[in-house]
Structures are given as C-alpha cells and as structure tokens.
Write a structure and sequence with these properties.
Structural class: alpha+beta
Strand order of the largest sheet: 4-5-3-2-8-11-10
Low-confidence stretches: 3-37, 207-233
Shape: globular
Helix content: 25-40%
Number of strands: 13
Largest sheet: 7 strands, mixed
Order of helices and strands: HEEEHHEEEEEEEEEHE
Strand content: 25-35%
Mean pLDDT: 75
Number of domains: 1
Amino acid sequence: MSRRTAITTGLCRLGIVALALAVVASGGVAGAENASDPNDAFVVTMESDGDAEVTLRMTFDLTTDSERQAFETLRDNQTELNQLRDSFADRLDRVASSMGTDTGRQMSITNADATVTTASDTGVIELSATWTNLASIDGEQLRVSEPFASGYSPDRTFVVRPPDGYQLSATPTPDTETDGTLSWEPNTELDGLAITATPDESTGATAGDQPGFGPAVALAGLFAVALFARRRT
C-alpha cells in the first residue's frame, strides 16, 4: 500500500473510530442513510497565510423521530460532544502529521471546536479545527490538491471558500459557484483536483509571507458518513 493510499484509508477509519466512540458513549446504534443530504457538508475555508478552517457539518431532520433523538442526545451531552471534538482533532492531527512529512511543510491541528445550532426543523452539529499550512504558497497563489486529487469521491457536499480578497479557480469544474465559494456534489469524482486561490485585483490582496512548498494537502469529508444520524435504542 502506498503512503498516499494509507493516508486516505486513515481518513476513512477516522470516521469509523469517531462513530464507535459516539455509540459506546450513548448505548445507541448508528446509520448513514442520510449522508448525502445537501445540507451536510465538509467545508474548507482557506486563509491567506496557508492555514484553513476545516468543518464537518452534520444535519438532522428534526421532524423525524430517530434523527431528532440523535440530535438531542448530542446537544444535551456536553461530555459526548467534547469526546467527538477531541476524536476529530486527534485523528485529524495524525493525518496532518503524515502529510506534513510528505510535503516538508510543518502542519498542526489547533482550535478544535464543536457547535450545536438549530434552524427551523433542522439540527446542525459542526466539528471544526484550524489546520496550519494546509495550502502551499507559490508567489501570490495558494494551492490545494492532495489528497483530493487521488481517487477522492466525497460522500457529501464538498465546499471550498477562498480567503478574503481572493478568487478561486479549480479543476474539475465545481458543480456550483456562489459568491466565490466552490461546491462539488456528493459522489463527484475529484481525480486530479487542483484548487488555486489568486488575489482579486480589485481588492489589492497579497499572499502571506510563508515560503512555498510542495502540493497542498486538504482533508476530505470521508469521516462524515460514519458520524451521521446516530440513534438511541
């Protein structure tokens, strides 16, 4: 198994381990039948210095008994939320360490957080963290490619937001582009993915001061399917 394949496999296992943690903590069972809900997403919000905030968004249909109970279980159990947050961050850090070795770019995971909100009949749980040096810098451009470029197919909407004052271009072409934010639908084949952030000339933005390294590394939402739609027995 190549190192790149091992890392991708590790991302898959991240979700499985986090799911197991949640199930053990609650005594419940889990399902992933709604993992492709268009409100579910893995979001990469790029910063001009090469860092990024990565957010796993899980939505729950509060009009459905099983999903409402799952959402309320997490909402009302801060200990369990903290465990999910820490599991997300710890395993994300392992991926960042491995990719840092491959790229020669120092990476770390900080500022992990878990938030719970409601909007109408939808419950939203977001796990997020800051990934330092997620993108490589080449002159005025930021670049994100691997591991998305090598066989990644997101199980839910994959979203990339540019830094303030930047515009994005990407291959393959995103399914939607709204106010500079790019989105790919679930199950899109992202082989050869390359995302470039360039300063928008109308804003006068400039790239960060960090030196450029190799290809950018980003985290895909492979753990999302395993974290979604927990149920209590």
